[in-house]
């Protein structure tokens, strides 16, 4: 689904459209809802990676004994 951009043709046809400024305002409203979950996912990935490395290190140490 596309929202038409404002142009002389859309104005003449009476089509409701969105200006560039309105489009940027809408997109900027969604940025925090993208960045916050992305940051949380990256943080969890690094934590799980560290836990997995520690588990492998302990497992290798237990096999050596």
Task: Characterise this structure.
The protein has helices spanning 8-13, 20-64. The protein is mostly helical and 65 residues long. The protein has one domain. The model has no long low-confidence stretch (mean pLDDT 89).
Short descriptors:
65 residues; mainly alpha; 2 helices; 0% strand
The fraction of residues assigned to DSSP E strands is under 5%
Shape: rod-shaped
Helix content: over 70%
Query: Counting H and I runs of at least 4 residues, what is the number of helices?
Result: 2
Number of separate domains: 1
Mean pLDDT: 89
N- to C-terminal distance: 63 Å
| Structural class by helix and strand composition | mainly alpha
**Radius of gyration from CA coordinates:** 25 Å
| Main sheet characteristics | none
How many strand units?
A: 0
Following the backbone from N to C, one meets helices and strands in this order, namely HH
Spans where pLDDT lies below 50 across 5 or more residues: none
Keywords: Membrane, Transmembrane, Transmembrane helix
Transmembrane segments: 24-46
């Amino acid at each position: 689904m596309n929202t038409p951009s404002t142009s002389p043709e859309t104005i003449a046809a009476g089509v409701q459209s969105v200006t560039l400024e309105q489009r940027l305002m809408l997109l900027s409203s969604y940025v925090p809802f993208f960045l916050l979950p992305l940051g949380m996912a990256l943080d969890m990935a690094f934590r799980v990676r560290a836990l997995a490395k520690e588990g492998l290190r302990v497992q290798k140490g237990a096999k050596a004994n």
